Amino acid sequence: MNEKLAHSVIIGSGFGGIGAAIRLRARGHKVTLIERLDQLGGRAQVFEKNGFRHDAGPTVITAPFMFEELFDLLGERMADHVNMVPVAPWYRFHFADGRAFDYGEDMDALRNEIGRFNSADISGYEKLLAASKAIFDVGFTQLADRPFLRFTDMIRQIPALMRLRSDRTVSQFVNRHITDPNIRKAFSIQPLLVGGNPFSTTSIYSLIHYLEREWGVHFCMGGTGALVRALEKLMQRHDIDIITGADVEKILMKDGRACGVRLADGTEISADNVVCNADPPTVYREMLPDDKRAKRPLPEALTQYSMGLYVLYFGTTKQYPDIAHHTIWMGKRFKGLLGDIFNRKKLAEDFSLYLHRPTATDPSFAPEGCDSFYVLCPVPNLQSGTDWSVEAPKLRDRIVSALDATILPDLKNTITADFWMDPTDFQRDYRATHGAGFSIAPIFRQSAWFRYKNRDPHIENLYFVGAGTHPGAGLPGVLSSAKALDRLFPVSAASSIPPQTRLNQAADITKDAAE
Ligand SMILES: Cc1cc2nc3c(=O)[nH]c(=O)nc-3n(C[C@H](O)[C@H](O)[C@H](O)COP(=O)(O)OP(=O)(O)OC[C@H]3O[C@@H](n4cnc5c(N)ncnc54)[C@H](O)[C@@H]3O)c2cc1C
């Protein structure tokens, strides 16, 4: 096959799909990116209502260099197209006892903040950070963007993972270093950002502490949607074909290989490689034909899914200048609430919330004198059997009342143009199995080799990127999955990757591709 003409079709335009499209284009492939929604970005789509703009999903950007790499690969500079700004504080926590805690880049300020709760935890945090760096050096630097195709790839990592005690949970990891109950909660929430319960997620995910400190927490002016638009234009300038509003119904197979896709309107598009950014369980269940090779690696009965999300988008007719850009509002219960969400799969009366106020950084999100918000509430996924047509409006009222009574006084009167997404929307819009917010859960037995692989074990030209695949959810995770995919292709003479980078990558990549 003439590699210059290799045609790669990518199903889904989340950040994993976009990363894959750009990387394969940089390798000289003809690339077609197909998205069922009318806009690109997947969970990072954008809503506009009555002059209020809302990023639907990701807002916290923690490894901006991973986006820069995508521009670099096609010979451009991200800074010429988008403006990433640091956010301070990174997060403000409001605990149920009325106390607040600012967590951010300035280490002196952070020590003072921790000291207000328990001075012993100041040195505890230093130890937590050092332990997080040790995990980061292996979990992120060495493993995140490597494909785990063979069990021996996993075996090789076992000694390092055991040394780092990845059998421990995030909560056990944090509790070893921190004693104050509020600060323990604040430093345990990271798994929730990728769909996991801190009480069962492997402590590998504690690397997020160090990841935040290494590169900071950023916001893209104009929103994450502005970043998606900039990447869309980058792809257009470099001749990636983009098709929106087109649902891939089936992946076509011939002689044991994927040979293209069929859209819901019957159009067939042939391909040399098919890359799925769609949810892997949905792909295996609904999009692959009955073929013994198209065997789902993780059986449904053994699969644990991430939690569902209820996201309430709203504007306010006045501004709340004291509310930080990224705010965590903690309810009274923590472990019990998470048990309801993840284990008992029961929609509780109470909740903890993440509140996004982009107008804290970028006033263009709302009409003058107003604020734009979304509030994200972790809830059980659709395995709970919750009737969302009944529960969603009730949950909306409970959340508005709780915020009105605490950090957003008078919200009941100032709220405007509100609407929500619940797990049924995640199931319908993104074709997410059980409406899960982050695909399969990030537990140890669903990580690395145990997670959906970046290449199907039996169909050699069927690939996977995105939250359900190695290494997992979150923007750094799904962009790393596209890097892992990249390593599975041989370096080509037609590549637009700068020669030196190509030389540096060549040894690794040809080895991975051969396996
Ligand atoms: C509310 C929310 C807040 C979040 N906040 C953050 C954050 O602040 N920081 C962070 O790092 N991460 C955050 N995340 C996680 C992060 O957004 C996701 O893990 C990541 O964006 C998922 O990317 P993905 O590549 O898996 O693709 P997805 O975004 O899941 O996109 C997959 C795309 O495939 C399309 N598709 C599916 N099936 C088909 C088909 N058959 N044909 C055509 N197209 C199809 C879907 O329509 C969708 O557009 C958040 C997630 C949510 C939901």
List keywords for this structure.
16 helices; binds flavin-adenine dinucleotide; 515 residues; 3 domains; 5-stranded parallel β-sheet; Guanine Nucleotide Dissociation Inhibitor, domain 2; 7-stranded mixed β-sheet; 34% helix; FAD/NAD(P)-binding domain; disordered C terminus; globular; alpha/beta
Give an account of the 3D structure.
By secondary structure, the protein is an alpha/beta fold. The protein has 3 domains: 3-84 and 222-302 and 438-514, FAD/NAD(P)-binding domain (3-Layer(bba) Sandwich), CATH 3.50.50.60; 106-212, no CATH class; 307-434, Guanine Nucleotide Dissociation Inhibitor, domain 2, CATH 3.30.519. Helices cover 34% and strands 18% of the residues. The chain contains 16 helices and 19 strands. The protein has helices at residues 15-26, 65-73, 107-117, 120-139, 151-163, 170-177, 181-186, 207-215, 224-237, 280-287, 335-343, 388-405, 411-414, 423-430, 475-486, 499-514, and strands at residues 7-11, 30-34, 46-49, 52-55, 84-86, 91-94, 100-103, 218-220, 241-243, 248-254, 257-263, 268-270, 273-276, 308-316, 326-329, 353-356, 371-379, 415-421, 462-464. The strands form 5 sheets. The protein has a 7-stranded mixed β-sheet with strand order 7-6-15-16-17-14-18. A hairpin with a 2-residue loop joins β10 and β11. α1 (15-26) packs parallel to α9. The longest helix has 20 residues, at 120-139. It starts with 6 loop residues before the first strand and ends with a helix. The relative contact order is 0.18. Bound molecules: flavin-adenine dinucleotide. Flavin-adenine dinucleotide (FAD) binds next to α1, β14 and α15.
